[in-house]
């Protein structure tokens, strides 16, 4: 079996089952925020980045379009979708339910080595924030969460969560623009590891939901700003609620009022 070391942001893909490998690599890039909302993806550039021919890349992009992870534009080019506030709120609600469930199911399956891996990732995320390394932060944030979800031993749930992350992942770069959020970005991860160490499935679920909701609070504020900017350019097509005046219900993962921040 040939093993080759690959260097660079994007790992080169070996010449075996190229269609599936291209699909997995591009999907992983979406999940970890490697691609940005509205970015047009070119077959030639992706083929160069991954070190393969154009055909597997073209088929992978078509597959992701069929799954609604990418958009086919009128000029036949393929782009990363741009999230609306309404869609993000819906995705947040689903993520809280499914990722919370996966975390709960995973709790009995954690080993000491898993906890050590999560703790090491937290240290790396702290370093990424200090060094202003957005790409590293996004990559390791995704890594942290999926170490947990993979332990749920529920492959269908995992696949759905991955599909959700392909839609929200490209927008997570906005977290790195929120200095207030970054000061506490790792707090949720520490809460999760503490809950895992306690062996309490409900506490692990609640900690994951708390972490998702904290990030969503920041991202929803940015989405409101973006929609307000678009309204100024295109006319008042829709009414948006200023972040500081929004009702408490908008901060709840379930869309209902809460005495907590969410």
Structural overview:
The protein is mainly α and about 260 residues long. About 60% of the residues lie in helices and about 0% in strands. It is built from 10 helices and 3 strands. It has helices spanning about 20-30, 45-50, 55-65, 85-105, 110-130, 135-150, 155-170, 180, 185-200, 200-235; strands at about 40, 70, 80. The protein has a 3-stranded antiparallel sheet. About 30% of the residues are buried.
Helix percent reads 55-70%
Classification by helices and strands: mainly alpha
- Provide the spatial order of strands within the biggest beta sheet: 1-3-2
Helix segment count? Answer: 10
Beta-strand residue percentage: under 5%
How is the biggest beta sheet arranged?
Answer: 3 strands, antiparallel
Mean pLDDT: 85
Q: Can you count the beta strands?
A: 3
Instruction: Extract low-pLDDT stretches.
Output: 1-9, 237-262
Radius of gyration, in angstroms, nearest whole number? 19 Å
Ordered list of secondary-structure elements with their pairings:
Blueprint: H1 18-31, E1 40-41, H2 43-50, H3 54-66, E2 71-72, E3 78-79, H4 85-106, H5 112-130, H6 134-150, H7 155-168, H8 179-182, H9 187-198, H10 201-234
Antiparallel strand pairs: 1-3, 2-3
Helix pairs in contact: 1-3, 1-7, 2-3, 4-7, 4-10, 5-6, 5-9, 9-10
